[in-house]
Amino acid sequence: MSVLIDLFTLMAVGSGLLFFLAGTIGLLRFPDALSRLHALTKADNLGLGLIVLGLMPQAGSALGALKLLVIWLLALFAGAVASQMIARLVQGGRGCGRG
Amino acid sequence: MPRLLRLPESLRRGAPRAFAFFALWLILHGGGRAGLAVGALTAIAASWLSLVLLRPGGRPVAIGALVRLALRFPGQSLLAGLDVARRALAPSLPLRPGLVPCPTRLAAGTGRDAFHAYLSLQPGTLPVVMRDEATLLVHALDLDQPVAAAVAAGEADFSRIRGNADG
Lengths: 99, 167
Fold this sequence. Notes:
Low-confidence stretches of chain B: 1-6
Low-confidence stretches of chain A: 95-99
Helix content of chain B: 55-70%
Strand content of chain A: under 5%
Number of domains of chain A: 1
Order of helices and strands of chain B: HHHHEHEEH
Oligomer: heterodimer
Number of strands of chain A: 0
Mean pLDDT of chain B: 84
Number of domains of chain B: 2
Largest sheet of chain A: none
Number of helices of chain B: 6
Strand order of the largest sheet of chain B: 1-3-2
Structural class of chain B: mainly alpha
């Protein structure tokens, strides 16, 4: 059973790392700032989510697993809000309202 | 609810938030007697600040709609990540990036900001700025995708959390 869990961890963390790699390649290859934000907000968040998913069975306690999940949610929240602010800055703050 | 109304408004509004912040503290920091006291004080301070910065909304949150959105989120996140990874790794770099004006009905405020943050985690869409009060400019990696339709569907789903059946 623990071999299966370790295998699951390896696969999930491994695919998480692949998404981080893809996000970084996107950051380098995509042509403009807004396209690069897609790479950061989507590929990296999924990468972190998969790493968290893979590490949760290794956390040793339900509280530890919950902590990992909360860290992912906080990173999602921070990433989504920061990408919003960067996108608005890139666009030169045009438009109206708090958008 | 006469008994609740006698309590100061801030206490009634702040108590659920304080419990939530305290739970967050317990998850992130763990137990321990000294930690509990610091955590309780932190939770109270955070609740006070959150009431100042984020005034309580009028309409209650529809839990069912929120849960449905949360359950669909991992799948959407997977689609979004796969889409970006596929484009980033393809040698031909299949992109047709651009801004799409999308009609939106959410009023300015926290709800709209939250919707934009949610939308930025969905496949293919990155909200940029409001062009005017009713038009959101959304950046897309591929203009051939049905971006405006995806934004409209997302707004309808999101609005149900606040109890607007028709968005």
